[in-house]
Amino acid sequence: MSARILPATDDRAIAEAAGILRRGGVVAFPTETVYGLGADAFNARAVARVFEVKARPSFDPLIVHLAGAGERGRVAATDDPRAAVLAARFWPGPLTLVLPRRPEVPDLVTSGLDTVGVRVPAHRAARALIAAAGTPVAAPSANPFGYVSPTTAAHVAELLGSAVDLVLDGGPCRVGVESTVLSLAGRVPVILRPGGVPREALEDALGHPLETAGRDEHPLAPGQLPRHYATRTPLAILAGEAGPPPEGRVGLLAWRRAPERGYAAVEVLAPDGSPETAAANLFAALRRLDAARLDLILAEPCAETGLGHAIMDRLRRAAEPAPGIRGASRSAPPR
Ligand code: TXA
Ligand code: MG
Question: Which end of the chain, N or C, is less packed with Cβ atoms under 10 Å?
Answer without folding.
Answer: N
